[in-house]
Design a protein that fits this description.
The structure is a homodimer of 490-residue chains. With 490 residues, chain A is an alpha/beta fold. Chain A has 2 domains: 2-240 and 449-489, Aldehyde Dehydrogenase, Chain A, domain 1 (3-Layer(aba) Sandwich), CATH 3.40.605; 246-427, Aldehyde Dehydrogenase, Chain A, domain 2. Chain A is built from 16 helices and 17 strands. The first copy, chain A, has helices at residues 22-41, 44-60, 62-73, 77-100, 145-153, 166-182, 196-204, 217-229, 250-269, 289-301, 310-324, 353-358, 360-363, 380-389, 405-421, 484-489, and strands at 2-6, 11-17, 107-109, 118-124, 128-131, 157-160, 190-193, 210-214, 236-239, 246-248, 281-285, 330-334, 347-352, 371-377, 393-399, 422-427, 466-472. In chain A, the strands form 4 sheets. In chain A, strands 12-13-14-11-10-15-16 form a 7-stranded mixed beta sheet, sandwiched between helices. Chain A has a 5-stranded parallel beta sheet with strand order 7-6-5-8-9, sandwiched between helices. Chains A and B meet through β3, β4, α8, α15 and β16 of A and β3, β4, α8, α15 and β16 of B.
Chain lengths: 490, 490
């Protein structure tokens, strides 16, 4: 049985949920495979309406969903209400992507060299397995971005629920299934399963064609390995760990150090720091003592919150113990501990660039929670090679004074490094807060993701679930509908 | 030392070439990493001109290149001269892709929800390792499609030469390097290495960001495993094995059985059958004895040719021995054996759909060479589920009578199966002969490729070497040049 817990009390939240038996996992995948032709063949407009029906149905139950999720996650009503809205916004974004139609990636080349004309269009890859995340019980969970984008692409989806919010997952799935059925979607187009064993069985099922995952580096790597070692390997789109370096340049530190300090503490402690975009590393000019003091003060004044689970809390405590014991690191600030047995304490540590560079294996690793490491750098020349050696990250941020030519010159160099090491570059802002739109790229080199060319947020997320097929010399009557009119003209 | 051989005689061709020492492999990768910023920053027009300079230089030496390659491959002057043209055509195609500019995949989203505007553009993934193929000494080798598309994307390339044509590889590399240098490309943007150990070292090098491969399923899987198990895993774009099913429908068999028979034998024996697009499986209506006889006659009248190497020849002989020994298979035709010690004999085998379905593990596997398996099917109803169970293929072909409604109805069903199982669907044609253009998709589900969303032929091949970066809130002066004008307007 899978039991959710209330992070504010550590006590069980709601009734336990049964792990999905093996036979039911097989049945869910079989139903997904059977739904594939009908769901894939649905006109864009019809699939768009089905996604909107799910969005409408979730919106209608926002209060209930947010209240249930608050029981299981303690993320609070404001955040959770907003997250339901973000989730339904994602579903509607993909409805728009379908109506726009460019996602089909149509190309046409005339006959030549003895070969008839060729038309290309993308098709859904097949039934998709989605592994839900703990830290976004809606937006990266049952009906989150992976599910929305895969359904939009024409792929049936089987979601493996996260153990942290089983009841929220069940209610979301139930609402979505009813809405999909009412909108005329084929049965089997969406299913939810529970349990680690069920998830592994899902991933190994021969009818699963691709998988999406958001979570830890260790967990993601284990699943990636399974995908690579299947008899038929499948693409694995994993969003794993990130520490998201933030670089403050001297001009900005002088110009608005206080704002930067409070901005950093806010981004660091948002959601108890349980974001893949959490700014774990803050690089500040060594000469600017005022900024260091301001950041320490801001973290001291900040508040923690209950972490999502005992496991995440233990992991955070272990990470704190490791960095506290590090001889080259000093602990410079601690905020107010969050409520409950798993309440996180915001922490700020400090070290020098030299010490940091000497042990990036420990110091540059992700500490999932509100723990920041402030690194003082003596000069841009010394900073740049250290930045370049960091692993891949979802986000890199630079703070500079737009009127300071020295800041701008260094910013250009920092951006040049980030272009090869992060998925998103932020100017005078913070990594947390991921816009869901057409230009978004929520990705980055490993370990940020296992598929650096793809994004798990925004319109382009649909591309992960599409594979092209070229049609050579087919008469209009045999071509897919989207290609036929052009073939008629030819 | 690596020694090329003349397949017409089995005797050494040219001088042996030294395996690249480990230190030189490291130096080549280091030079590629150093060349990356300058090559990536080059304007599209300048990179286009560099590719055209390579194309011009290769074209100028076509005769010499083809003659040298003929010594090492025995593919013949006509084919090899044409292949140099295809290779330089590919380089010019990518010059056109650069000038077109859409490959940058630019997207812009306005500010919203407290988040500033976001612009996205793609950047080169980094230094790329390319593993050359044996069967196309130019078009899938040193300056072949993988290299051309990666260079176009802004990625420096280190090619591991195929052992089958070391001298051709060296001459190609020498011409390309001179042309690149004359065109102002940074030193290190392109290098060639020799030897299996050198290739493995290349693939494991931390500065290599992605790899392309065309070759056998076993070889490709081994390299894919290395990529997945690196400390930092990298994307591996492998084009592996394919048997490329051809389905002849009853109307077409009646209407033009003789044409189909000669067409099939021609496609099967082209280049001694050493193509990844070779039509290994021919499904014909059981009731049409005339077609079976015509195909057998056409194969009997066909001629083999020297295979590329002793190893490929032995592999072909072993595959023939296996299928000849199969109790459910009969040998129905043999053509004229090709010249030399490694001369292939075109062969045609036959079985029934039922027997085929009972042992696809042996019968549906790739036999690299001019060996076809003719499978008689009693009805479309029985054929479709067997087709659906085949592994992924680069190509699937259907022959039907466009005026025959029964053929068209069955063709629709076959195409629906192929949409999920092949990368390219051909109507009334043959899988061999791959157009290099914007709509081409040379890919397909595993084992055809390890990355089913990507193509290794045609304009879209450039996408394999690009990764997006999102820019959030950057002033125009800090944005990449291609994004800056739009930012000025906003």
């Amino acid at each position: 049985m899978i039991q959710g817990f209330n992070p504010r009390t550590g006590k069980p939240a709601g009734e336990p949920v049964a792990e999905t038996p093996g036979a039911d996992v097989d049945a869910a995948v079989a139903a997904a495979a059977e739904a594939l032709p009908a769901w894939a063949a649905l006109a864009d407009e019809d699939r768009a309406r089905a996604l909107e029906a799910v969005a409408d149905a979730l919106d209608e139950r926002t209060k209930e969903l947010a209240a249930l999720a608050d029981e299981e996650t303690a993320l609070g009503d404001t955040r959770l209400t907003g997250e339901v809205g973000r989730t339904t916004g994602q579903l509607r974004l993909f409805a728009g992507v379908l109506r726009d139609g460019r996602y089909h990636d149509v190309a046409e080349s005339p006959a030549g060299g003895g070969i008839p004309e060729i038309e290309r269009i993308s098709h859904p890859v097949g039934p998709v397995a989605v592994f839900a995340a703990s830290n976004f019980p809606f937006a990266f969970s049952v009906m989150g971005g992976d599910t929305a984008s895969a359904l939009a692409a024409g792929c049936p989806v089987v979601v493996k629920a996260h153990e942290g919010h089983p009841s929220t997952s069940d209610l979301t799935a139930q609402i979505a299934q009813q809405a999909l059925a009412s909108a005329g979607a084929p049965a089997g187009v969406f299913a939810l399963i529970h349990g680690v064993d069920a998830g592994l069985q899902l991933l190994k099922h021969p009818d699963i064609a691709a998988a999406g995952f958001t979570g830890s580096t260790a967990g993601g790597l284990a699943l990636a390995k399974i995908c690579a070692e299947r008899e038929v390997p499948i693409p694995f789109f994993g969003e794993l760990g990130a520490v998201n370096p933030v670089v403050v340049l001297p001009g900005a530190a002088t110009q608005r150090g206080a704002d930067i300090a409070t901005g950093y503490a806010g981004s660091l402690t948002l959601g108890a720091g349980q974001f893949c975009t959490n700014p774990g590393l803050l690089f500040v000019p060594a000469q600017d003592e005022a900024l260091r003091g301001a950041v320490a003060d801001a973290v001291t004044e900040s508040s923690g919150a209950p972490m999502l689970s005992e496991r995440i809390y233990s992991g955070y405590e272990a990470a704190l113990a490791e960095i506290e014991a590090h001889p080259a690191v000093t602990s410079v600030a601690a905020g107010t501990t969050g409520e409950g047995p798993w309440g996180a304490t915001p922490r700020l540590f400090a070290t020098t660039l030299e010490e940091f560079a000497a042990d990036t294996e420990v110091l540059a690793k992700e500490r999932f929670g509100p723990a920041g490491l402030l690194i003082t750098y003596p000069s841009a020349e010394e900073l740049l090679p250290v930045l370049a050696q960091l692993g891949g990250n979802l986000v890199g941020a630079v703070h500079g004074d737009p009127g300071d030519q020295a800041d701008l010159a260094t910013a250009r160099q920092v951006i040049a490094v980030f272009q090869r090491t992060v998925g998103r570059i932020v100017w005078n802002g913070w990594p947390t807060g991921v816009a869901v739109n057409a230009a978004q790229h929520h990705g980055g080199p490993y370990p940020a993701t296992t598929a650096p060319a793809t994004t798990s947020v925004g319109s382009a997320a649909i591309r992960r679930w599409l594979v092209p097929v070229a049609y050579q010399g087919l008469p209009a009557e045999l071509l897919p509908a989207q290609l036929a009119p052009a073939a008629d003209e030819g």
